[in-house]
Amino acid sequence: MKKLNFLLSAASLIVLTGCNSPKTDGAHVEEPSHTKDSVTTAKPDEVPMDSAAMAKAWNENRMPGEMHKWMATANGKWTAEMSFRMSPDEPLSPPSKADVETRMIMEGRYQETTYKGKMMGMDFEGKEIMAYDNAKKKFISTFIDNTTTGLMYMEGTYDEASNTINFTGDITDPATGKKMDYRQELKFIDDKNQLLSAYDKKDGKEFKSMEIKLTRK
């Protein structure tokens, strides 16, 4: 594994330096004067990153860290009670139940959560892939299910005070084809209970459109 890590880092450096190096085919090529000026003119506050620092940054970006370990504490089997509504004028639907399983994949880099059960009387199957991007310092969530043909993408940050990940993104309204703002709150109540709340907008006003109560089995 150490050898593979070294080779990956080295390969990244080769690609990066290779892309920025002009090809001469062994012959000296005189560059146009305007090109020389643009290359040699550097801003005083810019310090080039050396190869060692670049390799360190790439390595830190690809290795699971403390946030990934924290994500893994949610691994296991859960029962979900899911309620929905399409409009703020109607109550949340009676809860439908689903079996949920969460596990880390790709050597702890991502978290996969699968849902399987019923939703409003219909068979329901969904899958979420959640990441913590070391470079962005953000959580990323993608979700697909058998009720649509789209893929939902959201980015979020962790609020330590409330033990909640706050996600934001957008969804496409199938009726109009227009994008709508969308956000979710994933609250870790304790080791055995989580609450996922989703919010849509209608006529410019936000309302809770989904609530999923998760209980560890």
What are the defining features of this structure?
alpha+beta; ten-stranded antiparallel beta barrel
Biggest sheet: strands, sense, closure? 10 strands, antiparallel, barrel
Q: What is the count of helical runs?
A: 4
Rg (C-alpha, Å): 24 Å
Structural class: alpha+beta
Order of helices and strands: HHHHEEEEEEEEEE
Report the principal-axis shape: globular
The overall pLDDT, averaged over residues, is 83
Q: Tell me how many strands there are.
A: 10
Q: How far do the termini sit from each other? A: 35 Å
Percent helix, as a range, is 10-25%
Q: In order across it, which strands form the biggest sheet?
A: 1-2-3-4-5-6-7-8-9-10
Beta-strand residue fraction: over 45%
Low-confidence stretches: 1-42
Gist?
The chain has 217 residues and is an alpha+beta fold.
